[in-house]
Amino acid sequence: MRTVSTSLITQTVEQLCIEACYKIGDDVKILLQKARDEEESPLGKWILQQFLDNMHISREEQLPLCQDTGMAVVFIELGREVHVTGGSLEDAVNEGVCRGYEKGYLRKSVLDPLTRKNTGDNTPAVIHLEMTEGDRIKITAAPKGFGSENMSRLAMLKPADGADGIKKFVLDTVVRAGANPCPPIIVGIGIGGTMEKAAYLAKKSLLREAGKPHPDKDIAALEQELLNKINETGIGPQGMGGRTTALAVHVETYPTHIAGLPVAVNIQCHAARHASAVI
Amino acid sequence: MIKKITSPATTEEILKLSAGDMVELSGILLTGRDAAHKRMVEYLYKGIPLPFDIKNQSIYYTGPCPAPPGRIIGSCGPTTSFRMDGYTPLLLDLGLKIMIGKGQRSPEVVEAIVRNQAVYLAAAGGAGALIARCVKKAEVLAFEDLGPEAVYRLEVEKFPLIVAIDSRGSSIFESGPAQFRI
């Protein structure tokens, strides 16, 4: 057994929250540059250039890319041979979120859903824990802004709806979202499992390198088909018309029940923030 | 071509703007989002005067990040405007002239824009650091207890925007995508 203290987990989460909000991955940057070069709409081109300038300013000046620094979603892959000492893992993660949002001058956006009273430190985080092999812990902080989260949807389709039903639901979700989720977007789709499993898969698919096809060729073909269809809607950058509505579509699947076909669509804005570390 | 506008703007200046125009705005903006709008409208229904005059003013829907030391403001991009739609016609009828946010508006808001010769401008959602650079002065004007949702008075220079819904009710969210739909 390898021992890892909760204080190291706190410190790592703190750094990852800040890093994710200041630095967007090169994968998204490359897709945005390509979109800017190919965009036919002059307005769209102007907007895409603003996003690229914004990424540069954010890195250079250590300012969050977007003022909606999100609700902190933290994925933890915990090796079976790790023993966490010094307290609860959940408390350690929340302490890291609290410190990261304070130290990084990130916005505290989390509140009680009914009283609407702000918790003041952006906690609690949404924590997803998975057990894996080995003696390491992989931590990923993925702050999620609600402009795009609000436009996400889930449907319990009928088996008879099949692949066509899935495509229709995804397209309908993107069209209904229109300008609101700050297109160009990345569309995360979870198909199968149960209601919460589909939602989890959709969220998790957003952690994949943006635009990297699924290893299964049939799923990769579905991703490409959906991306083409989404870009044919003409919604465009910020919903003002153009060729670039989505930068990528990521699909993850899981076996489901004979009676069901759950489909979750998690929409991610172009500020696709996530940062990982292995300890 | 990028048009230059100042805020507060005159009705004459507003009438010259058309959906799809690229503009750079300089001048004074008040910030306000969900909680500030809710409170403004509650005050108005109860007959309590607002702590600031919104006649001829411009409201920017944003909730900025805290300002790091030595900076005027943190990241301050636009938030989704439709959440303010229920409160907006009343504010327009009281003289609000410019709204800045992102995304579509309801038919009721579009009607109130036309009725009051106002305009709705859209900022690039997600470009919070770039927009922070345009802010030259920021101070809390009212509702300080609302934290990031407090009403700030901002002085901005060359804030890049697009005319989303003009004073005649034309919307770039309709005409733009229609042009590129396959």
How many structural domains of chain A? 2
CATH architecture of chain B: Alpha-Beta Barrel
Number of strands of chain B: 7
Q: Based on CA inertia axes, which overall geometry of chain B fits?
A: globular
Rg of Cα set of chain A: 19 Å
User: Assembly type of the shown chains?
Assistant: heterodimer
Number of strands of chain A: 10
Largest sheet of chain B: 5 strands, mixed, barrel
The helicity of chain B comes to 25-40%
What structural class do helix, strand and pairing data of chain B support?
alpha/beta
Helix content of chain A: 25-40%
Number of helices of chain B: 6
CATH superfamily of chain B: Fe-S hydro-lyase, tartrate dehydratase beta-type, catalytic domain
Unreliable residue runs of chain B: none
Nearest-integer average pLDDT of chain A: 97
Overall morphology of chain A: globular
Strand content of chain B: 25-35%
N-to-C span of chain A: 14 Å
The main sheet of chain A orders its strands as 4-2-5-10
Describe the structure.
The complex is a heterodimer of chains A (279) and B (182). Chain A is built from eight helices and ten strands. Chain A is α/β, with parallel strands linked by helices. In chain A, 40% of the residues lie in helices and 25% in strands. Chain A has helices at residues 6-22, 26-38, 42-61, 89-103, 146-149, 162-177, 195-205, 217-231, and strands at 2-5, 71-79, 82-85, 126-132, 137-144, 153-157, 185-193, 246-256, 261-268, 275-278. In chain A, 49% of the residues are buried. In chain A, the strands form three sheets. Chain A has a four-stranded mixed beta sheet. Chain A folds into two domains: 2-20 and 65-144, no CATH class; 147-272, no CATH class. Chain B has 182 residues and is of the alpha/beta class. Chain B has one domain (2-180): Fe-S hydro-lyase, tartrate dehydratase beta-type, catalytic domain (fumarase), CATH 3.20.130.10. Chain B contains six helices and seven strands, in the order E-H-E-H-E-H-E-H-E-H-E-E-H. In chain B, strands 2-3-4-5-7 form a five-stranded mixed β-barrel. The longest helix of chain B is centred in the N-terminal third of the chain and has 13 residues, at 34-46. Chain B is globular. At the A-B interface, helix 3 of A face helix 5, strand 7 and helix 6 of B.
